[in-house]
Amino acid sequence: MVSKINITERTQFGKRGARKLRHNGEVPGVIYGAGKEPVLVSVSEKELIAECYSLAFLGQVIDANIAGQKEKVLPKSVSFHPVTDRPIHVDFLRIAKGSTVKLGIAVEFINSDKCPGIKKGGLLNIVVHTLECNCDPERIPEKIVIDLEGKDIGDSFTLDSIKLPEGTLAANPTRDSVIATLVGSRATASAEAAEEQASAA
Predict the structure, then answer these.
(1) DSSP run (H or E) holding 88
(2) Are residues 90 and 131 in the same domain?
């Protein structure tokens, strides 16, 4: 996903320069990484606010035009004012050509209304809410979707059973081998025990 934020190289430095930028509706920032010198930049506060409160913002690739050269960068962090909550600084990571980027991708579960296990009163025990992945910068997924349709109590969702988007690999496959499990609640266990007793009588 590519953001539409415009990044401009800045010539105003220091605290006084940063204050002047903010007064003019700009947010100071820096681009670093890929073995190159850091570049001081600024972005429109209005454009940044429209993007930065989204959970997907840190996974958006931005095309920056610095000194006539195009570079792909990735937002790494945004600092906010402690009182007004307005963005006051943003860091961007320069993406080297042919490299991958490590990101946390949100995991989303769908079709809970079509899940027999949940209908029986089971609970979805989510182990990994955000999966750390190595991604192709050109194909960073917004989220990883897991379908609950047809799943029952006792079923588990492992990394091996999930089809990750093309260009995306789990960064820690051993650590994140189990994404979630469908477990029975106490009420479900009690109901099952009562059914077993009734069948045995």
Answers:
(1) strand 87-94
(2) no
Q: Exposed e or buried b for every residue in 176-192, given b needs 16+ CB within 10 A?
A: beebbbbbbeeebeeee
Alpha carbon of residue 200 to chain centroid:
51
Tens-digit pLDDT string for the chain (201 aa): 546 688 988 887 888 888 899 999 999 999 998 888 999 999 999 999 988 887 678 888 888 888 778 888 999 999 999 999 999 999 999 998 888 888 889 899 999 999 999 999 999 999 999 999 999 888 888 889 999 999 999 999 999 998 898 889 999 999 999 999 999 876 554 545 445 554 555
Same structural domain, 78 and 145: no
Task: Give the structural domain span for 77.
Answer: 2-94
Separation CA 182–CA 41 (nearest Å) = 47
Q: How many domains does the chain have?
A: 2
pTM: 0.71
Q: List CB contacts of 8: < 8 A, sequence separation 6 or more.
A: 41, 42, 43
Last residue of a domain, one of 48, 74, 94: 94
Contacts with 164 (C-beta within 8 Å, 6 or more apart), sequence order: 133, 141, 144, 170
Same domain, 112 and 178: yes
Number of H helices, E strands in the chain: 4, 14
